[in-house]
């Protein structure tokens, strides 16, 4: 399945009350072309997407937080799965887009034997799934959005990126943070 098709579905199901975070991957480019509402933190460095999203889920317990991670990013810090399982935030939904490669740098371990869903299960996350079709994605993710339980899904997607028209530009550091915090300040549950 194609990551962009999954992201289009996700965009149709959420509102601007949801907080989203992406890893530094093609996901950031595609999600930024689809979702311009609410607080979005695009392009966290490898290994930081899931831990950052977990922190947001604790800071904003009444809001759904979605981590849009990638296989290469999560493989850099699989230990974060243990922390996420221990904390068990009921408002966190993690979707890892697994295309089995690091952009143009070669194959990830998921192209061989590594199984991110089994690693998440071993860490103690109760609701997991490996999604291989758009129908599986739709069914599992829609259900996770409607419930208050930590959910973790690996979406097996084709390599490559969608031909999108937006002028995605990755900004480093302060501009990304400032835009994100400015969007958060508009919410009544923002505590500074």
Unreliable stretches covering 5 or more consecutive residues: none
Radius of gyration based on Cα positions:
15 Å
Shape: globular
Biggest sheet record: 6 strands, parallel
The strand order across the widest sheet is 2-1-3-4-6-5
SSE string, helix = H, strand = E?
HEHEHEHHEHEHEH
Note the quaternary state here: single chain
Can you give the mean pLDDT?
89
The secondary structure category is alpha/beta
Question: Roughly what percent helix?
Answer: 40-55%
Please report the number of helical segments.
8
| Percent range for β-strand residues | 15-25%
Q: Termini, distance in Å?
A: 40 Å
- Count the beta strands: 6
Question: Which features would summarize this protein structure in a list?
Answer:
6 strands; six-stranded parallel β-sheet; alpha/beta; 18% strand; 192 residues; 41% helix; globular
Task: Describe what this molecule looks like in 3D.
The protein is α/β, with parallel strands linked by helices. Helices cover 41% and strands 18% of the residues. The chain has 8 helices and 6 strands. It has helices spanning 3-13, 26-34, 49-59, 71-76, 79-87, 116-123, 134-146, 174-185; strands at 19-23, 40-44, 65-70, 92-98, 127-131, 151-156. Strands 2-1-3-4-6-5 form a 6-stranded parallel β-sheet, with helices on both faces. α2 links the parallel β1 and β2. The protein starts with a helix and ends in a 7-residue tail after the last helix. The model has no long low-confidence stretch (mean pLDDT 89).
